[in-house]
Amino acid sequence: MKRNYYFKTNCVSARGADITEMKDGAEQITRRTFLKYVSRETLAEMEVNLGYDRHYKQGLTMAQDWCVSYWKSEYRGKPCVYFDHSSIEYVYQKLR
Question: What is the pTM of this model?
Fold first, then answer.
Protein backbone atom coordinates (compact mmCIF):
# COMPACT_ATOMS: atom_id res chain seq x y z
CA MET A 1 0.00 0.00 0.00
CA LYS A 2 1.28 3.43 -0.93
CA ARG A 3 1.76 5.87 1.96
CA ASN A 4 0.08 8.83 0.35
CA TYR A 5 -2.23 10.17 3.04
CA TYR A 6 -1.48 13.67 4.31
CA PHE A 7 -2.85 15.85 7.08
CA LYS A 8 -6.26 17.24 6.12
CA THR A 9 -7.71 18.79 9.28
CA ASN A 10 -8.36 18.30 12.96
CA CYS A 11 -11.60 18.38 14.90
CA VAL A 12 -10.94 21.92 16.12
CA SER A 13 -10.89 23.24 12.54
CA ALA A 14 -13.57 20.97 11.03
CA ARG A 15 -17.35 20.96 11.25
CA GLY A 16 -18.50 19.03 14.30
CA ALA A 17 -21.06 17.01 12.31
CA ASP A 18 -18.34 15.82 9.90
CA ILE A 19 -16.15 14.63 12.79
CA THR A 20 -19.08 12.95 14.56
CA GLU A 21 -19.98 11.05 11.39
CA MET A 22 -16.35 10.03 10.90
CA LYS A 23 -16.07 8.76 14.47
CA ASP A 24 -19.39 6.91 14.33
CA GLY A 25 -18.14 4.74 11.46
CA ALA A 26 -14.56 4.34 12.67
CA GLU A 27 -12.62 1.14 13.22
CA GLN A 28 -9.64 1.17 15.57
CA ILE A 29 -6.34 0.17 13.97
CA THR A 30 -2.78 -0.24 15.17
CA ARG A 31 -0.03 2.33 14.73
CA ARG A 32 1.61 -0.10 12.32
CA THR A 33 -1.52 -0.12 10.13
CA PHE A 34 -1.77 3.69 10.39
CA LEU A 35 1.77 3.92 9.03
CA LYS A 36 0.73 1.95 5.95
CA TYR A 37 -1.26 5.06 4.97
CA VAL A 38 0.85 7.89 6.43
CA SER A 39 4.62 8.01 5.96
CA ARG A 40 6.85 8.21 9.02
CA GLU A 41 8.22 11.51 7.72
CA THR A 42 4.75 13.02 7.45
CA LEU A 43 3.83 11.83 10.94
CA ALA A 44 7.19 12.91 12.42
CA GLU A 45 6.42 16.52 11.56
CA MET A 46 3.13 16.33 13.47
CA GLU A 47 4.80 14.55 16.40
CA VAL A 48 7.24 17.44 16.84
CA ASN A 49 4.34 19.92 16.68
CA LEU A 50 2.60 17.97 19.45
CA GLY A 51 5.68 18.06 21.68
CA TYR A 52 7.15 14.64 20.98
CA ASP A 53 10.83 14.63 20.10
CA ARG A 54 12.20 11.34 18.83
CA HIS A 55 15.77 12.60 19.27
CA TYR A 56 15.34 13.22 22.99
CA LYS A 57 16.08 9.85 24.58
CA GLN A 58 14.43 10.58 27.93
CA GLY A 59 11.13 11.82 26.54
CA LEU A 60 7.91 10.02 25.69
CA THR A 61 7.44 9.23 22.02
CA MET A 62 4.06 9.18 20.32
CA ALA A 63 4.50 5.46 19.63
CA GLN A 64 4.87 4.85 23.39
CA ASP A 65 1.98 7.09 24.45
CA TRP A 66 -0.91 4.85 25.52
CA CYS A 67 -3.29 7.84 25.31
CA VAL A 68 -2.95 8.01 21.51
CA SER A 69 -5.25 5.79 19.44
CA TYR A 70 -5.40 5.20 15.69
CA TRP A 71 -8.49 4.83 13.51
CA LYS A 72 -9.69 4.16 9.97
CA SER A 73 -12.92 5.67 8.64
CA GLU A 74 -14.34 8.11 6.10
CA TYR A 75 -14.22 11.88 6.34
CA ARG A 76 -16.78 13.73 4.23
CA GLY A 77 -17.41 10.58 2.19
CA LYS A 78 -13.77 9.74 1.41
CA PRO A 79 -11.45 7.21 3.09
CA CYS A 80 -9.29 8.52 5.90
CA VAL A 81 -7.17 7.50 8.81
CA TYR A 82 -6.83 9.57 11.95
CA PHE A 83 -5.31 9.53 15.38
CA ASP A 84 -6.82 10.74 18.60
CA HIS A 85 -4.47 12.72 20.84
CA SER A 86 -5.91 14.36 23.96
CA SER A 87 -9.42 14.01 22.52
CA ILE A 88 -8.48 15.85 19.34
CA GLU A 89 -8.74 13.93 16.09
CA TYR A 90 -6.05 14.55 13.45
CA VAL A 91 -7.38 13.47 10.05
CA TYR A 92 -5.28 12.26 7.09
CA GLN A 93 -6.52 11.70 3.52
CA LYS A 94 -5.09 11.29 0.04
CA LEU A 95 -4.27 14.47 -1.81
CA ARG A 96 -6.35 14.95 -4.92
Answer: 0.90
